[in-house]
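Incident review: delayed structure delivery

Summary: a single-chain prediction request sat in the queue longer than the usual turnaround. Root cause was a stuck worker, restarted by the on-call engineer. No data loss occurred. The affected request and its eventual output are reproduced below so the record is complete for anyone auditing the incident later.

Affected input:
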Amino acid sequence: MPQISKKALEALTPDPAGRDVFVWDAGDGALKGFGVRMKPSGAASFIIQYRTREGRTRRLAIGRVATLTLCEARDQAREKLASVAMGADPSAERHKLYHAITVAEFCDLYLLEAKRRVKASTLAMDRSRIETHVKPLLGRRSLTSLTTEDIERMQSDIADGKTAKPRRLRGRGGVATGGPGVAARTVGMLATILEVARRRKVISDNPAREVPRLPEGRQQRFLDLDELGILGAALRDEERASKNRTAVAAIRFLLLTGLRRMEALALPWAWVDRRGRCLQFADTKSGPQFRPIGDEAFKLLERLPVREGCPWVFPAERGDGHFVGLPKVLGRICAKAGLHGVTIHVLRHSFAAEAAAMGYSGLTIAGLLGHSVPGVTARYAHVPDWALVDVAGRVSDAIATALDRLSADMPSGRA
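Output delivered after worker restart:
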């Protein structure tokens, strides 16, 4: 048998009988004891196999085939096997290390190893939750001593605001307020991390699996047609005063498209497809997508100035980045207009509510919003669906009409 090669790795398939499949390095220049193990699930890992000084056979996983190159795995295997020749037992050392590891240390290890397989935006959110909530409440606990009751207590403490942090006096940064939604999502993230620990046999069971999650609550607030008219007038006043024109345009764009905040604010001009009447997102919460938008949204984009050398549709007032200060501006405009409880997500929900009021189905609205719904995301992720483009246009037309309507002409609410 020749040395393990990239071609050999690509040819690996699970055993139909449900047994582990092993391929060992062999032939000229082979690294004795270096191999690959494929589980019945199809997950494959680089491993080493060796004998201790006491004659016991050990196996040690080096890393997943999906995350390590063959060259990297071979180098790591050579280093481990060299230590074995000097009398070390890397499997026992890892076992001892894992059983002494704290929750904080394992979370750091998880973040380090997740860089190759987790989206950068998701990883950033995980890191924030770990630093803000998990480490202060559970970080010093031994991973093996962690119980379901500990995690339930953590969830309760986050919901009660015990890990809340004030806004920074200077610089950028959000506010860690806690609450049931944050608590539930933090428990879900920790459950994922502990599942990694369970698969590696660091812990025998996942204590987060049995924790009942606090209800997150669904967004109920949206702007009706009357309120859209009031907000539209407030936005025009803000623009006439030459204040925050970028923010005003971004608020209108969010209402006209139903985009998530960062999908709009971090939108580069290169993703705007005028011919396809859509936005070509290279990355979203649901992966790459085509997102249809209406004519009113495109008219708004055509009126925006393009800053030379700047890739962003909504550039920052200073520096090379994109605009970020939208929540504060929206809050001030809505307070002045007498609109209460309006957040950035309310803009997105208002788009969805208008689509629902026009009689479109939940699956159609999911396609408009880019939700990860089986059968919807797959359909709209690769080519712009012209029926959906038409719906996006109708919804954005209705919202634009409400925003631009004079107060004397405002309706008395949605019929």
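Verification: Residues 20 and 39 are 5 Å apart (CA to CA).
Action items: add queue-age alerting; document worker restart procedure.
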